[in-house]
Automatic annotation (TrEMBL):
InterPro entries for the chain: ADH-like_C, ADH-like_N, ER, GroES-like_sf, Mito_Enoyl-ACP_Reductase, NAD(P)-bd_dom_sf
Lineage: Eukaryota, Viridiplantae, Chlorophyta, core chlorophytes, Chlorophyceae
Reaction equations catalysed: a 2,3-saturated acyl-[ACP] + NADP(+) = a (2E)-enoyl-[ACP] + NADPH + H(+)
Identification of the protein by name: enoyl-[acyl-carrier-protein] reductase
Domain of life of the source: Eukaryota
Length: 354
């Protein structure tokens, strides 16, 4: 479909927090007017549904659009279709991604401050560009910010099939760091293990098999652990950390609290830390640091060290088509073991390709 800036933009919008299928509706927005000083017009191509987006619509995330009339979506890639005066760094035809959260990417087009967007090269491909802002920089920052790791060191993580987890595996491998990866029991266990190993995972196992599989692997005890699940899965990672190791919690997919084993704290002096990319990390980095992190991820894609996640695309607002297609995106996102990042596709079915 055409989403020229002159078209009427459409967006998923909510007025009060709630479950996405209840709270959101697809609405027409006012037609775009020429961009003012420092502004650009963006035509969106692909915008993911990340867990933090769901939490945002539910009213459980600290960063959210202004309500009523808020457009969710913290991540996505858009094409610059018009540039106002006093804009530098972005030109018509560029692909741009947000460096500031809560820009509202679940829309076909809009007018935005250019300073909140960063150009990314088309040669990394649409899937990489659409998903570059949040999960790969989280993996990179967590590998760099807590412990000085050197080649041969080991990190452990749960939720290894997450977009962050897959980026951790690949960035670690590029640095000679070994990964111990916990995943949930699943029907497609063999295929999932093979997929993560192909990305560079050294060990892929479950909570139940971890102790035996780690012993058999001969891998050294990890100094650093990443937790995006909570509950028993957090304890499982904590339990195998080396003396003085650090568990970094960055997500809570199971909705269970992180409980620390007493022995791990007393006998191994394990530390518990937290990481938040869009909050503390972003503030510390400033705009220049955030742009530099994105450029570092682009370089990883270009070097072949990173592969883009699989996408499961759903049209946001097909003209003359199924106006409720966006609803199926949320049904798909709720499925366990989906193995792909659900995105709203505004590119017209593969348009905007590299
Ligand atoms: N703090 C930060 O700065 C930051 C940045 C990025 C992401 N995050 C957080 O990191 C987490 C992962 O995000 P993502 O975008 O990478 O995820 P994603 O690609 O959407 O994948 C979701 C992951 O969570 C697992 N999962 C889902 N429900 C679960 C449950 N009830 N128990 C255990 N595991 C469950 C899935 O396992 P299956 O494959 O088995 O379904 C999958 O590994 C989220 O909590 C997100 O909010 C935080």
């Amino acid at each position: 479909m055409s989403t020229n800036a002159s078209d009427t933009p459409r967006a998923l919008v909510y007025d009060t927090p709630g479950e996405p299928l209840d709270a959101l509706s697809l609405r027409e927005l006012p037609a775009l007017t020429p961009p003012g000083p420092g502004q650009v017009h963006l035509r969106f191509l692909s915008s993911p549904i990340n867990p933090s987006d769901i939490n945002t619509v539910q009213g459980k995330y600290p960063l959210m659009p202004t309500l009523p009339g808020g457009v969710p979506g913290h991540e996505g890639v858009a094409e610059v279709t018009a540039v106002g005066p006093q804009v530098s760094g972005l030109s018509v035809g560029d692909w741009a991604v947000p460096i500031k959260p809560a820009q509202g990417t679940w829309r076909t087009a809009g007018t935005f401050p250019a300073e909140h967007w960063h150009a990314v090269p088309r040669d990394i491909g649409l899937a990489a560009a659409a998903t570059i802002c949040i999960n790969p920089p989280t993996a990179l920052a967590m590998l760099e910010n807590f412990i000085a790791l050197k080649p041969g060191d080991t990190v452990a993580q749960n939720g290894a099939t997450s977009a962050v987890g897959e980026a951790v595996i690949q960035i670690a491998r590029a640095r000679g760091i070994k990964t111990i990866n916990l995943i949930r029991e699943r029907p497609d266990m063999e295929a999932t293990v093979a997929r993560l190993k192909a990305l560079g995972a050294d060990l892929v196992t479950t909570e139940e098999r971890l102790k035996d599989d780690l012993k058999a692997s001969g891998l050294p005890a990890p100094k650093l652990g990443f937790n995006c699940v909570g509950g028993n899965a957090a304890q499982a990672v904590t339990r195998i950390l080396a003396d003085g190791g650090v568990l970094v919690t960055y997500g809570g997919m199971s909705m269970q609290p992180v409980t620390a084993g007493t022995a791990a704290m007393i006998f191994k002096d394990i530390s518990f830390r937290g990481f938040w990319l869009s909050g503390r990390w972003a503030e510390t980095q400033g705009a220049d640091g955030r742009r530099a992190a994105l450029d570092a991820i682009v370089a990883l894609y270009r070097s072949g060290a990173l592969q883009a996640p699989q996408l499961a695309p759903f049209p946001l607002a097909p003209s003359g088509g199924d106006a409720a297609a966006w609803r199926r995106a949320f049904e798909h996102v709720a499925q366990a073991h989906r193995g792909a990042k659900v995105v709203f596709d505004m590119s017209g079915g593969g348009g905007g390709s590299a």
